[in-house]
Amino acid sequence: MIKDLVSKLPEIYQTIYNHPEYKTSRNCDHRLNYITDIIKAYQAKIGKTNLKVLDIGCAQGYYSLHLAAMGCRVTGVDFNRANINLCKGLADETGLSVKFICDEVGTAFIYEKYDIILGLSVFHHVALKSFNHAKSVFKIACSIAEIVISEMAVKQEGLYWAENLPEDYADWFKEQKFYKEIAFTNTHLGSVKRPFVVSSNKWFICQNRLYEIDEAFNKSYAGGIELPYKNLYYCGDYLCKVAHKSKLNIGHSEYMYNEVVNEAKILSGGDISFLPKLDCSEITDNYAMTVQKIDRGILLCDLLKQRIKVGDIVLYDVLDNLIELESKGLYHSDIRAWNIVIKDKAFLIDAGAIRHENKDCNGENTYMSFYRLLDYFLSQFALTDYITKYTASKDKTFKAIKRILKECLK
């Protein structure tokens, strides 16, 4: 029976489930491993195995059947009748319960909710109508599923459907709260690899750990610049930062990427007392990601904006942080009101800005960077006194700055 059904296929595109004797166009196992890792992590997170899964463009049902074997309730959709006939035959043969439907992509799933949607190398076919049409279908998928796992064909492959695809595949994911490339996969069509992506409007995922998104931002603080290639997520007391390299702005996106890479390095050292604990991180050629356990206080810049009086003790707390860093040959390159949090005491944040070089992000030394904070706290008389004493001092360290400041604020 299976042999007859296979003979009627237009192409043996996927591995035939439980039939390794058939040669296939694409190896499916490495993508299956990525998918099952996420499925297992999600099953463990929510404490149930019978996840509701939709496999869009299920082809010969390899992933649908594997996920059914893992306890998932799976619906597979494909427009090709021969594919669906084989899928049903394989389900009967193995005793696995999967609902297989022969239908066009975009019509069979709009009115239901799913835990997971798979869309592997299918949306570029939908884009034959237009990219906007395909994007609207993809957007629907993302709105009805907690997690979407997709493999996207890219314009650079140069095949007949490429004309309707965006220059940057990230355009598919612009409206999703979270996405990351799990891998870049080979195809049977050429040498260009396709991004294999997990995205979600509910979860961010790091090292196969799922964190529910409470808040999502694409700027570091309320008055900051919106950055389409940098995202921050909160899950309770966990903060996640993801920086993607972007064709929109190669130079600045790489700067942000390198900051998150540096943050992972600094936090993993664990020897700076005021920094949060690193929960996990991922560094790839395309994105950098950290998840840290933080103390969620109030940013100094927000307090100042509300005209709330802030005591001089904030300066001493920040100086204690800077003295600790300097004792280790380190400096904070962005000492600004938006990088100071006040809770029980004040402390510096943004570990990615910590460097061995005593240089501010604007090119001046970090002592001058700290000096600019004094305008918020010192009277003109005290500020003039500070400048006089600091200029006369041979010792320019943060330890000396703290001593001079105390003299000025007696």
Entry keywords:
alpha+beta, Rossmann fold, Transferase(Phosphotransferase), domain 1, 3 domains, 7-stranded mixed beta sheet
Tell me what the structure shows.
The N and C termini lie far apart (92 Å). The chain has helices at residues 2-7, 29-46, 62-69, 81-94, 123-126, 131-144, 250-269, 300-305, 313-327, 366-371, 380-392, 398-408; strands at residues 52-56, 73-78, 98-102, 114-120, 145-151, 178-185, 194-200, 203-206, 209-212, 215-217, 230-235, 238-244, 277-283, 287-293, 298-299, 331-332, 340-342, 346-348, 354-355. The longest helix has 20 residues, at 250-269. The protein has three domains: 2-206, 3-Layer(aba) Sandwich (Rossmann fold), CATH 3.40.50.150; 214-293, Phosphorylase Kinase, domain 1, CATH 3.30.200; 298-408, Transferase(Phosphotransferase), domain 1 (Orthogonal Bundle), CATH 1.10.510.10. It is α+β, with helices and mostly antiparallel strands and 410 residues long. Helix 9 (313-327) runs antiparallel to helix 12 (398-408). It is built from twelve helices and 19 strands. Strands 3-2-1-4-5-7-6 form a seven-stranded mixed β-sheet. A hairpin with a 3-residue loop joins strand 17 (340-342) and strand 18.
